[in-house]
Amino acid sequence: xxxxxxxxxxxxxxxxxxxxxxxxxxxxxxxxxxxxxxxxxxxxxxxxxxxxxxxxxxxxxxxxxxxxxxxxxxxxxxxxxxxxxxxxxxxxxxxxxxxxxxxxxxxxxxxxxxxxxxxxxxxxxxxxxxxxxxxxxxxxxxxxxxxxxxxxxxxxxxxxxxxxxxxxxxxxxxxxxxxxxxxxxxxxxxxxxxxxxxxxxxxxxxxxxxxxxxxxxxxxxxxxxxxxxxxxxxxxxxxxxxxxxxxxxxxxxxxxxxxxxxxxxxxxxxxxxxxxxxxxxxxxxxxxxxxxxxxxxxxxxxxxxxxxxxxxxxxxxxxxxxxxxxxxxxxxxxxxxxxxxxxxxxxxxxxxxxxxxxxxxxxxxxxxxxxxxxxxxxxxxxxxxxxxxxxxxxxxxxxxxxxxxxxxxxxxxxxxxxxxxxxxxxxxxxxxxxxxxxxxxxxxxxxxxxxxxxxx
Length: 456
Known about the structure:
The chain is built from 16 helices and 16 strands. It is an alpha+beta fold.
């Protein structure tokens, strides 16, 4: 009896400690010799572990080359999901794969990982890769028939289209069926394109159908999809590629419409918050203030207060407070015994605001040039905001050099509150404002100031 119990305990112990491995070969090797493993959780990545690579030399087509090997061990309790290998400290260097309680071995080229990856071990990843390759070929054939018809209606062939559509559906159904009990089934189901049953002869109708049916097979509540890059990639594709126009105003409206379409599909309030933040970051890269404001006003601010990230909101709005298109953040100063405010100045049609310092050699070369250039510009006024540690040098300088300007003293230099609001990290820094104090340009140098004012 005791022997049976002991054997049972050993069996349970061995099962509990069972591990799977993630092995990889990077070919060719990189300068960086570290690989980090993450698990994708919503729009974020959770650190799992890291390891140092081992370098080997191999011969390929008669030439010796270096490859990097890495290996991770995952415990039995590691959750299935999408995992990410990061192999570059700087720049893009990621490869995502599926882990579902099986060993995963892969080889890839670090410069184009998605296209080059080969899974030497992993049923799920090989099946998914095989599916993507076959459905891509079938879908491209169908699309080529549709596009040819739109370009040359004389090539109209409903029969060819029907044959190609049947092939797409056959491939899709086959892989949906054989992966019913696998983790990748969610991705295969969601990857199915909703194709029109009949060949279309109108490009407008074709694009309309594509937009309307884009998310028909995608379940935004599916945890496998949520905890992967799949929904993010589909969101980016829909907003930035499917909804595209060369006209700026039309494009802004398309952004808004596509954002509404995406967010209307997301019911989980926390995931919706993450997607909104992700989109704000995307539009921050292009300084698209109109869409960022739209996202905050129409979506982020309407989330429950307990869900909103106050620090994120403050950081982003502060970061963009002094961008072109914004009303310049207000501040006040003493001038000739009076208190003046930027917002209430009304002595010019255009204002040039320059952040400078008496301790900046470059400023001391440019500021006199700017003063000379502005002397005959009656409808333009300069606001010289000096970032100083104390007032002594500044008071002496402005008395003899900067008559006719609005001269503002900003103490504490780089820690000055106004300078931080304007995201000023170097001097001189220029801002050009219209009479309503809207920022209309942020020139880099005095020559850029002159060029903008002369072409305004």
